[in-house]
Amino acid sequence: MSVAQAVQSDRYRPMDRSAPVFVAGRNGLVGSALWRLLTTEGFTALLGPGSTELDLRNRPAVFEWFAKHQPHAVILAAARVGGIKANDTRPTDFISDNLQIQVNVLDAALRHGVERLLFLGSSCIYPKRAAQPIREEALLTGPLEPTNEAYAIAKIAGITQIRSVRRQHGLPWICAMPTNLYGPGDNFHPEHSHVLPSLIRRFHRARTEQLPKVVNWGSGTPRREFLHADDLARACLLLLERYDSDSPVNVGTGEDLTIRELSDTVASVVGYEGAIEWDPSQPDGTYRKVLDISKIAALGWAPAIKLSDGIAETYAWYESTAP
Ligand code: GDP
Question: pTM to 2 decimals?
Fold first, then answer.
């Protein structure tokens, strides 16, 4: 399928900025970026209950919440997420929580006839050996990366549910597949977070405590692509207003770098000058997963935040909140 066919149309279907929009996962990395953007864009009725107010794994509570608040549109950015070690060691949590969150929100949205809905997946849904850069058509064409298979299967189930609703009920629900994300508000947990916040935390501690060396995980040779959450938020709004097809849409930069290069960049932003060692007993994960972004580029979106600028901004945020 050509990009022109896949994009379906560039028809602009504006979102009603005064209607209630449910940002599920509002306090997470993506949800908080969406909240900032939508507020700036003039949305006046955003809904974003925190997880203590509404546990999305609680099906009756989700249905009650939808009945009470009647959202007009939903962005499903809520998920249990984590880095390679969290995914590898706690796969049950990743498949179970994500399936429950998705099924509850999507079923409740269907029951209430929510017309505009965007489901967020992840680039890890694609086969481990997919041709690079990865096109959307690679979905379900081969085995997954084992370290995050449980999370990926949950996300693939979400895509299939969106496609099923489109086919059976004719609603224009859509899916976006972001690459590895980062930005202010990320999770900086030493064991469970993704690589970029982990490196910020590690180098910050090493600099402030004047440690002579740090040890990163794996070989440093895998390649990854990183997108700032604010760039993703802009893509989400654009897709909701311009895209209507059952194919997921990749959202990334289309450019990757080695973990070693990333580590050097973070060290330089943080001002750490000690030694950097690598621990090969830790998992590398997939060797490469860079996205083909031609579909969303054809709709007029491009990433705007340079990686080194985004890391500097994220580090400033981390420093301002670090204990
Ligand atoms: P992935 O993209 O699903 O593999 O998730 P991550 O962001 O957790 O890891 C990306 C890569 O960074 C893997 O090759 C890790 O081995 C490597 N890495 C190096 N140091 C760290 C670290 O401190 N934390 C994490 N999460 N990954 C690290």
Answer: 0.96
